[in-house]
Write a structure and sequence with these properties.
Number of domains: 1
CATH topology: Rossmann fold
Helix content: 40-55%
CATH superfamily: P-loop containing nucleotide triphosphate hydrolases
Strand order of the largest sheet: 3-4-2-5-1-6-7-8
Number of helices: 11
CATH class: Alpha Beta
CATH architecture: 3-Layer(aba) Sandwich
Shape: globular
Structural class: alpha/beta
Mean pLDDT: 89
Largest sheet: 8 strands, mixed
Bound molecules: adenosine-5'-triphosphate, magnesium ion
Length: 271
């Protein structure tokens, strides 16, 4: 992990010199301005009871949290090796554990002081991150940020100074139109330029229920597919993998063993 941290710190320093990515035509922000942007985000604390309730095992030390940390390390390694920064998390059908795994990864990343991460709610039809984190509805939704109407700082919640979460408390109509719209690329670039996260995780809807993931696929560097053991078929995984591979990089499939919904639950990673 030290090697990865060192590599990420170096990559960050390089990016701070080179100033990529940023919206076309704008100058890179100085390092102090990036830190000021992070410092201006509304601060929240993790609620231990909610973490337990929603199976965010990475919140405290356990054999399960070690599994999440290993997944985090492999993901960071692969993203670093490929110079990838944006990771989408999806699944073939609903309820496979996408949001649980996305939040587990984000909490695990927040434990890395050298790494800045973002977790963004892109299941616009059925948002869940705000509820899982116990955040009161914001005056504005992350959808408003995506539409370029308001600043991220008006919507986000910041944990441990290095994890920023974009939250929705209402459902969005025309989600796939928004996610494939002309402005989305610039909005994401502006977020990258203003906060320069080392990794941005997008919590997506299931692929076979709506076309949101495919509409958004070209905006991300890579995708992780979450499959539910005993519920997701190999055929469903194949369909998703093939469709996604035409638009972006499929990082792997995580088998989420949520069959027992109890102590036996766990995560298996297939790179
Ligand atoms: N490994 C696991 N063990 C036990 N329960 C789990 C596990 N992973 C997820 N769950 C539970 O399964 C349910 C669905 O999880 P989650 O909301 O993360 O899925 P999702 O794929 O994001 O769903 P949706 O498609 O509705 O967005 C939740 O109640 C969650 O706590
Ligand atoms: Mg979800």
């Amino acid at each position: 992990m030290d090697k990865i941290r060192a590599a990420i710190s170096k990559a960050r320093a390089d990016r701070e010199t080179l100033g990529v990515p940023r919206p076309r035509g704008s100058k890179p922000l100085p390092v102090d301005a990036i830190s000021a942007n992070w410092a201006a985000l509304p601060v929240e604390q993790f609620d231990a009871n909610l973490m337990r309730k929603h199976r965010i095992v990475s919140f405290s030390r356990s054999p399960e949290s070690a599994g999440i940390d290993m997944m985090r390390t492999r993901i960071l390694q692969q993203m670093h090796d490929n110079n990838w920064r944006r990771l989408a998390i999806t699944s073939p059908t609903a309820g496979c554990g996408k949001s649980t795994i996305a939040l587990n990864l984000a909490v695990s990343l927040s434990r890395q002081p050298d790494i800045r991460s973002m977790l963004l709610e892109l299941d616009l039809r059925r948002p869940s991150l705000a509820r899982m984190l116990g955040i009161n509805p914001r005056p504005v939704d992350f959808t408003d940020v995506l539409r370029g109407k308001v600043d991220f700082a008006q919507n986000a919640a910041c944990y441990d100074g290095n994890l920023a979460v974009g939250l929705n408390s209402t459902k969005t109509r025309n989600a796939s139109e928004l996610l494939s719209g002309a402005g989305i690329s610039d909005t994401l670039s502006q977020l990258d330029a203003a906060y320069r996260p080392d990794i941005t995780i997008f919590d997506m809807p299931p692929m076979l229920a709506a076309d949101d993931m495919m509409a958004f696929a070209t905006q991300v560097d890579c995708v992780l597919i979450i499959a539910a053991t005993e519920r997701t078929s190999t055929r469903e995984i194949d369909i998703c993998e093939q469709d996604l591979a035409r638009q972006t990089n499929v990082m792997g499939v995580v088998l989420n063993e949520c069959r027992y919904m109890g102590d036996e639950a766990g995560y298996g990673y297939y790179g």
